[in-house]
Protein 1
Amino acid sequence: MATIKLEIVTPEAKIYSEDVDMVTLPGIEGEMGIYPMHIPLMTQVAAGEVAARKGGQDYFLAVGDGFVEVTGDRVAILTDMAIRAENIDEAKAEEARKRAEARLSEKLSEEETATVQAALLNSLTQLNVKRRQRR
């Protein structure tokens, strides 16, 4: 069976790099399924859940906003945040969400507001992915 290389990279590190059977990712216009030999594509990735299917098993990651480049044999996601579902600390993500929401009630500059909103989105994404895995 044909596979496709999935690479997920943040500014800090390469988070995931494996050959998989298929990838589902959150595009800005909705969820996209990518199989081997997919038509070349470059688009934005929205914060959400990436699912990688390998050998009949699904692996999940929370990702932030970013970009994806798809070729026939590779999916490369560049994002500001990526974490495997099993590595998400729900208590820390909930604490980060509360801190960000509290900061948004303060008087902030536009730049600070954008930074806090990004942090809030990342914590909410992590919480959604982690809680969805429990079901």
Protein 2
Amino acid sequence: MTESSILTVKGMKCGGCETTVKDKLQAIDGISSVTASFKNNEVVVEFDSEKVNLDTIKSVITQAGFTVE
């Protein structure tokens, strides 16, 4: 089942940070779309909840060096 989630992500300072988050998340099986905005401190993720869960997504963002609120 496809779900969409808007996450508040702190620590992104530039377009490079956005790219890092997008690349890390898009490498996960089950994620179909990622939009990141450092200006809005926001990451929008569309994913298949049967393949990946929100905790995994948050963990990947944290491991990339950012804080999910």
Protein 3
Amino acid sequence: MNITYIPTPINTSDIELSSELKQLTEQMARNVHDIWALGRFNDGWTYGLERNDNLKKHPCLVDYDELPESEKEYDRNTAIETLKLILKLGWKIEKK
């Protein structure tokens, strides 16, 4: 199989999040982590000091607050880019 994958995400660099949506990103990042962790746990993974795919151990299977800043930043970026994409596609996000 000779498949060349070239990621082509929608450019959201022209979208600026409001201060309210910026505050929402931390809650979204926490939820992104929890969804990822729940999926791992459901697949039989447990916490381990080092990642080991054979033993299904992962050091990030901890509460969001215990994650290294680099991992939190990964989850935040997912949340930010999701919100920016929604706005870029013409949707409106407002709090009830």
Protein 4
Amino acid sequence: MNLTDAANLSHSDWKQRAAALKTSAQTRLFIGGEFVDAADGGTFENICPVDGSVMNTCAAGKKADIDKAVAIAKASFKSGEWSRMAPRERMAIMYRWADLISENGAELALMDTVDMGKPISDMVGVDIPMCIETVQYFAECIDKMTGSITTTEYDVMSTVLREPIGVVGCIAPWNYPLLMALWKISPSLAAGNSTILKPAEQSPLSCYRVAELFVEAGGPPGALQVVNGMGEEAGQALARHMDVSKISFTGSTEVGKLMHVYSGESNMKKVSLECGGKGPQIFCEDLEGELLDRAVETAINGIFFNMGQVCSAGSRLIVHSKIHDVFVEKFIAMGKDAYTCGDPLDPAVNLGPLVDHESQARVLRMVETAVSEGGQLEFGGTAAAGDLQEGAYVVPTMITGVNDNDTIAQLEAFGPVVAVIKVDSDDEAIEIANNSIYGLQGSVWTDNYRKAMRYVREIECGTFLVNSFEEGDMTQPFGGYKQSGNAKDKCFDSLLSYTNTKAVWFRLN
């Protein structure tokens, strides 16, 4: 079912489809164009975050399965069946792939909802359309990758070529299971690489299906494979493999650092990282009227969307003392009930559970720590009650009176928890914004564009927005500074990062 028809489904319709999906969804590894069991027969339970029940049992890939997939990928690359395919032919397959994602949009949306609790309305209205756009964008880029001829002496022709790297390993997170996977595998495939995806073990279903659709679209079976499993087993085996030429990883900063270790201990493969964030949103003293209201509304969505499980979430609100009290009052009035916990299969619900009960416990502990360190709990700070108490829910939470070095101001909560820090000047706001190991995304809200440009120049982050947050399109690089990582997703530069540059020197006489 496509997205247009999916938008008309009711809560009851989605529940029926979810019940059927639990038994019909493919949960085995996708290797060489076929679904297969793990080599040692290993499995693990796929837990539903809504009520803690077991949805199904997934194959647990390990080193032997990674070895098998890499061998197939390497043979596929060497054969040239994808890597040397004419650009326009590769484009046609990827366009067809995007069409199949669209045609199966309802199924893919449902898979991510049951796996990690994302509201179905967000999947239908946001994630799947962006998935389609991602594949289409990188398909469009395929024949735009050009080399160059440099200026040199008369009897020499010097050229620069772009070539695919070879076998690429992609490790994707669970907070945007399909979208983040496609941010990686789409440019890798567009560049002509053979690609192996290790999805997060919490959310593999949509990744299996989208790989199957790639082969259905005409892609060679060896060009895209999916090996699910635990990070310390399948993920580490992929990152250490001597025949994998690049690892693209999105996840925690702690594990991201290990990717560099694994690269150094194996073949010095390229490593692209997109890790954590602690996004500062800065609100200047000149905000008033409509701009202030829009700033507050955007701040609410910037932290509570996707249950706050967004690495670029605006989790630190740095507010000038002149407007602080009014800002907080408006945030409470507009934000306390803006997001309501409920069954993510209900199209009217905009806040589902966190991905698992471990995450729920961690977020609630961070709230307790914030209060013990002097923060003021304005609303929230608890699990959901009543019929939802078995799920991994955390209600939207606001904490004011936070100091710059408090735990909640420094560590990534990865939940619907916002911390408010009061400042008295631009100098103080900039110092606090940059006092973080992270540098992924930030913003400033002001009616003074000279002031805005100062923030643009001085805030240390990979993406910075003025009078907006979480906006952009496929042309915009997404990635951070400092311990937020070293890569750029989306954008044309992302595609080029999946290629090698070769200099060629022709002596003509």
